[in-house]
Amino acid sequence: MNALAVSAPVDMAELRATLAAEAGPVHFVAGGTDMLIAGRPLPETGLLIDLARVAGMAFISTDGTDVRIGGATTVAALAADCRLRVRIPALCEAAAQCGSVQIRNRATIGGNIANAAPAADLMPVLVAAGTRLALLKHDGTQYEAALCEYLPNSGHLITEVILPERGLLPRSAFVKLGSRQDMTISRLNLALLAEFQSNHFGVVRVAAGALGPVSSRLHRAEVALAGRKLGAATLRDFIAALIDEVDTAIPGRNSQLHKRRAVAGLGLDLIAQAMGLSPRDRLFEEAAG
Amino acid sequence: MNQISRRVPLVDGVAKVTGALRFTADLHVEGSLHGALVLSPRAHARVASIDATAALAVEGVHAVFWHENTPSRYYNSSIWFAGQEALADERMFPPVVRHIGDRVAAVVAETEEIARHAARLVVVEYVDLPAIFDPEAALVHAGPVMRDDGIPAFMNPVADESFTHGDLDAGFAAADLVVETHVTMPRSHHCAIEPHACIAKPEPDGRILILSPCQSVFAVQAVVVQALGVPQDQIRVVKTPIGGSFGGKAEPILDPLCAFFALALGRPVMIRYDRHETFTATRTRSSVVGRMRIALSSDGRILARDTETLVDIGAYCTGGNYLPSSMLQRLVRLYDVPAERYTGRAVYTNTVPAGAFRGYGSPQIHTIAEITLDISARRLGVDPVEMRLRNLIEPNAIEPWQGLNVGNARGRECLIRGADAFGWQGRRRADAGRGRWRRGAGVASATHINGCYPGFHEETTATLRLLPDGRAELVCALHDLGCGADTTLAQIAGETLGLRACDIAIVPADTDSCPYDLGTRASRMTYICGEAIRRAGIALAEAIRAAAVLELNTEASGLRLEAGAVRRPDGSGLALSDLAARLAARGEELPAATEIYRAQANPGSYAAHFAEVEVDRLTGRVRVTDYLAAHDVGRAINPMLVEGQIHGGIQIGIGYALYEDVAIDRVTGRMRGDSFSRYTLVNASEMPPMRVLLIEEGEPTGPFGAKAVGEIATIPVAAAVVNAVNDALGTELTDLPLVPERILAAVS
Amino acid sequence: MRMSLKVNGQAIETEISPISRLSGFLRDVLGLTGVKEGCCEGECGACTVLLDGQPVDSCLMLAFQATGREITTIEGLCGSGVNDLQQAFLKMGAVQCGYCTPGMVLAAEGLLHANPSPGEAEIRHALAGNICRCTGFETIVQAVATAAAARQGAER
């Protein structure tokens, strides 16, 4: 019924050669957890390339200045990596909250980016961290691009996800809100990366998912925190900024009323996690009141 | 007692944990073809034309069926026996589709993959008709439901039930407080993890054998006979293991199709729905809008109550016309209400049909009544437990609608002991908090029926016979839906025979070999079938003792059955297998006994549920943080299975209160919650710690005192949770489910 | 295309369509119907199998991707017998209709392999991708905790 061919290259060289040799449409599969969801059309022609076996596409390198992660690295591997947790805890947290154990064991960081779901849990962290991608074109050329410039429809393969050193701020957090606590699709998620010293925020980066077609930075929320002292007043300004961001992002949408309030709760959870505090700490109750 | 009140593991448990148990879709039937359906994308439309050319051209396709080449007979998929009066408005493939997901056509092919591929190639032209998605609007579409020539007119209301008892006006005139509520409940889905499936197989003698995960083989037979117009003895139905039903598999949906295709093609045919089809093309719990006006004295006595319900039964009648009266039946057996008026109407809409779902209207009516009572208690300043105690029905009360005795009703003990164990007083007095998170506690009471008495032949026949190996065979058309009914009933049989549950060989329900039974519905398995089996067991024990007299040289009255043997008073005796061997050697038939048990009563089961919740006022998330369920079960034949029923009932009830809604779009008629990713189910992390308290005061008419628990377990849950949320927030929320949007709209 | 893999300890070489799901391959080609299908979108976990010891949804994996790897289905866990975890499921009433049970048991085995002494919250988190509609999860969590404690005790 179909003329789909399959290739399972064992290393990058074979992958490049396979890509270069293929004239027809190319489809990639890594974990398959997005591609195989019921109701989605499966490729019928062309070449299906299995990325899961490519040596050198699943790795987490935290020794260098930048953190480098292979495109076919599983979400479970991200969640479990202790050294990654030291460098960017928010990414491990986002990975740990992504789907179920079964999904995390198959889903990959490259897939999370390439499938471009608005609610993708790794995305806000990656966006906040100023992530760059190493991409491979079909003709074998390799190039680097900022995550925000990456076009999912380009068909270019994400071989590496690069978290530049300067984006890896010492405090980080990821929180999400879904219809359930576990194994839930984000209706809203937030990530934060920040400098924090002597009870003051330094540089701050905040990004949100499920507020628009792609995860994006929330600059007003960043401004509300940057350089400010951690306290109820700052938190109130932060919440106001988050609400402002929601109002701008989804004006008039059915979910606006819900999300503009929920973002306040999620925002407090975010700061609490970054500070290693409980969101039930008096500080946050004061800010919420 | 050797088997009763014991935590006996499931008799079919090993097959389940090892994956050896074969469900319908797991069966390999030699030469089987596979069917795939074309479901309507339109909410209400005439099927103007169907072009099957492309589908038929696919290699491996055997046939394409639609309204022009299938029986045009109208049927009702909820009937329980041949000839049952019911509004017959359903067709195998209707020429006018009435909801998104209605059946348009089917392709039968060598494999499921080919059938599904070809089904996408069937070209259908529709002419859209006006569609109604709102039950209030549906009321305007009024007229006779059936034309004079027996053709369904699809007019509303399909049912209109009213009842008055006592002096309503006097009650309201005397009231210190009148509370009026408007409660809405969503359409929820059973979500049994096994999707619908069926196999039909032509037999060499020209009959059709249907293998179906059903709740009654006789109901399947009756519906298939009505749909196909074939003689009853041409259809044989055997129940296959069932991967959860909760009422969702009570009505045969695929069975008439499979049977007809198998008959037409002379080959076995299997159809299995995928999850999307199971959501959009089977049944749901009916959504209900309820209005209740309640008159109270200042000390919390109910003086009068006036209830109106509007039930959206969807596109086909099925059993939906029973819902208004069924809700009334449960409403009147909980509290002693001196004056009561009830009006219940059921209406068609262009949405997926409603059907049976655990409690059959009972969760809906209890949600209306118990939320209303709680709001009344708060407005009166009376403790909700205290208020319920002042109004609860007493044991052996006669309910006012059907005049039935409610039996050994122990709703009071459920409340008192439950409140004590839950620490109700302390929790209720505790501060809800003033910050982001608020805590609250809620309670709800409930009752439910035990069987169908005084309606439809509420009787069953059980046969038990001694087997050569000393075990006993049980024939009683049993349909275990996964709740452990087979185990419970085997314990009852075992108890009477001195055998273990695992020594009872249960013959699967089969229209050929089992006498008629209504099937698993109306909380009747333990109470009705259990009593028939107990009686048959006593009769068989008698027969075994009589048969052993000669062998043991003792009076029958001195013999007892225990541990697989028949014994003299001194303990000496004969293993049943030895007795069987000796009887066989003498050419005698092995003892057997058959009992026909006709129900004489329909007592109530009672319960009180207590929930504690925490509400996040910023995100709108509700978490149930603690739960206690107290149940009047008469006697727990198997406490482990009883607790399991209650745990599962709480799970479905929490979903009903907080998450579950197939969410039919009021503009397009499209179901938004049509997959597990879009229909939120409670998973392990959402469940609170649960405690179960069993009140075992014995129901004189039940087997070993037992009453039903399966359905009632889910009935009070939603109200208890909603009441807890209202306690936490100081709100009067009455629209379910309490999704974050609704919580936030109430607090901001 | 041809592929070879190990299923329940047995080496298998077979012809397979490139877009066959692992769940379909295990059920239809190998007859391992202990692998159940509930949603085909990774939400219910009924099709859970162990891939080199780790739980995955076999509905969301292409069969050919299992080339050279080892799959364990419920049939391969303890043959026709029941292991201590399955025994705990039976004794504690963690099984009702049984449809989710194979996937649930395998997800729990995957957890106990990765974390031999999980706390209650960890068990619930690890089973969040397996839906049971019958039990309220209470006895399932108890069964997993009981089996974990017994295994830990046996090691000491």
Overall pLDDT score of chain B: 97
The parts of chain A where pLDDT drops under 50 for at least 5 residues are: none
Structural class of chain A: alpha+beta
Main sheet record of chain B: 7 strands, mixed
Report on this model:
- The complex is a heterotrimer of chains A (289), B (748) and C (156).
- Chain A has 289 residues and is of the alpha+beta class.
- Chain A has helices spanning 12-21, 75-80, 82-87, 89-96, 101-104, 109-114, 123-128, 219-225, 232-249, 256-275, 282-288, and strands at 5-7, 26-29, 47-50, 60-61, 67-70, 132-136, 142-146, 157-163, 171-177, 188-197, 200-209, 216-217.
- Chain A folds into two domains: 5-115 and 130-163, Uridine Diphospho-n-acetylenolpyruvylglucosamine Reductase, domain 3, CATH 3.30.465.10; 169-288, Enolase-like, domain 1, CATH 3.30.390.50.
- In chain A, a hairpin with a 6-residue loop joins strand 11 (200-209) and strand 12.
- The longest helix of chain A has 20 residues, at 256-275.
- The N and C termini of chain B lie far apart (58 Å).
- Chain B is globular.
- Chain B has three domains: 17-130 and 196-272, Aldehyde oxidase/xanthine dehydrogenase, a/b hammerhead (Aldehyde Oxidoreductase, domain 3), CATH 3.90.1170.50; 362-450 and 602-747, Aldehyde oxidase/xanthine dehydrogenase, molybdopterin binding domain (Aldehyde Oxidoreductase, domain 4), CATH 3.30.365; 453-598, 2-Layer Sandwich (Aldehyde Oxidoreductase, domain 4), CATH 3.30.365.10.
- Chain C is α+β, with helices and mostly antiparallel strands and 156 residues long.
- Chain C has two domains: 2-76, Beta-grasp domain (Ubiquitin-like (UB roll)), CATH 3.10.20; 84-155, [2Fe-2S]-binding domain (DNA polymerase, domain 1, Orthogonal Bundle), CATH 1.10.150.
- Chain C has a five-stranded mixed β-sheet with strand order 2-1-5-3-4, covered by helices on one side.
- The longest helix of chain C has 18 residues, at 138-155.
- Chains in contact: A-B, A-C, B-C.
- The interface between B and C is large, with 55 and 57 residues.
Features of the shown structure:
heterotrimer, B: 748 residues, alpha+beta, Aldehyde Oxidoreductase, domain 3, Aldehyde Oxidoreductase, domain 4, 3 domains, 5-stranded mixed sheet, 19 helices, C: alpha+beta, Ubiquitin-like (UB roll), DNA polymerase, domain 1, 2 domains, 35% helix, globular
